[in-house]
């Protein structure tokens, strides 16, 4: 596997663009075999269920091949969609600590931690 690959999205991510994106992303994943794919969403203005489904499928592909998919710069419109669908906890987000999945930072706990 190679180093991280960053995929940048811009504009509306909907049914009209998901097919070509899927083909391009899968081709990149097969060619480069990245251990980590980072999807930069900073310039996304809209995402529908098809766009969210694409992220889920690419994540599943990465997991099957021993890799990981991370998100970066998730805009409010996508963050809301992910919260509503319960997928916010599924995707690692480079912009937040793991405990910060619901938009609030978890309060530190006192005392010993148990597993």
Key structural traits:
115 residues; alpha/beta; Transcription Regulator spoIIAA; 23% strand; globular; disordered C terminus
Written overview of the protein:
The chain has 115 residues and is of the alpha/beta class. The chain contains three helices and three strands. The protein has a three-stranded parallel sheet with strand order 1-2-3. Helix 2 (49-64) links the parallel strand 2 and strand 3. The longest helix has 18 residues, at 15-32. It is globular and about 30 Å long. The model is unreliable at 97-115 (pLDDT under 50).
Summarize the structure.
With 115 residues, the protein is α/β, with parallel strands linked by helices. It has 3 helices and 3 strands.
Q: Let me know the CATH homologous superfamily.
A: STAS domain
Shape-level CATH architecture? 2-Layer Sandwich
Helical element count? 3
Give the integer mean of the pLDDT values: 84
Unreliable stretches (pLDDT < 50, length at least 5) are: 97-115
Produce the secondary structure layout.
Blueprint: E1 5-13, H1 15-32, E2 36-47, H2 49-64, E3 68-72, H3 76-85
Parallel strand pairs: 1-2, 2-3
Helix pairs in contact: 1-2
């Amino acid at each position: 596997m190679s180093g991280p690959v960053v995929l940048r999205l811009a504009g509306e991510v909907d049914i009209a663009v998901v097919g070509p994106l899927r083909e391009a992303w899968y081709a990149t994943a097969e060619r480069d075999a990245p251990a980590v794919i980072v999807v930069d969403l900073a310039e996304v203005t809209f995402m529908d269920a098809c766009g969210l489904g694409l992220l889920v499928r690419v994540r599943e592909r990465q997991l099957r091949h021993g890799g990981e998919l991370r998100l970066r710069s998730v805009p409010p419109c996508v963050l809301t969609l992910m919260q509503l669908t319960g997928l916010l906890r599924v995707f690692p987000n480079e912009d937040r600590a793991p405990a910060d999945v619901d938009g609030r930072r978890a309060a530190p706990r006192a005392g010993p931690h148990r597993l």
